[in-house]
Design a protein that fits this description.
single chain; mainly alpha
C-alpha cells in the first residue's frame, strides 16, 4: 500500500508573483524585504510553481501582503485586488 503524494496548491506561484509585482519589486528586492535566505533562482522557482516555499517564507509573504496564509495556500481563494504593503 503506497502513500499518495501531497497535493500542492496550483495557484501559489502566481499569487507570490502577484504580490511581488503589486509592490513593484525585483526578485532580489523581494528576497531582502522578506528577510529570506534564498537565491533569486529559488524565488523564481516559487513564482513559476516549480517549488514550494517553506512555511516560514510563506508566512513572510502573507505578513508582507497583509493576508492570512490560507489565502496563499487555498486555490479557491483570491488575493485582494489591492494589497496593503506591510514591509
Amino acid at each position: 500500500m503506497g502513500t499518495k503524494p501531497r497535493q500542492r496548491p496550483r495557484r501559489l506561484g502566481e499569487k507570490l508573483l502577484q504580490i511581488r509585482l503589486s509592490f513593484g519589486l525585483s526578485q532580489n528586492e523581494m528576497i531582502r524585504r522578506l528577510g529570506a535566505e534564498v537565491s533569486q533562482n529559488t524565488l523564481s522557482s516559487y513564482e513559476l510553481g516549480n517549488r514550494e516555499p517553506s512555511l516560514l517564507i510563506l508566512l513572510s509573504y502573507a505578513r508582507a501582503a497583509g493576508v492570512p496564509m490560507e489565502v496563499l495556500a487555498d486555490d479557491d481563494l483570491d488575493l485582494p485586488v489591492k494589497l496593503r504593503r506591510r514591509m
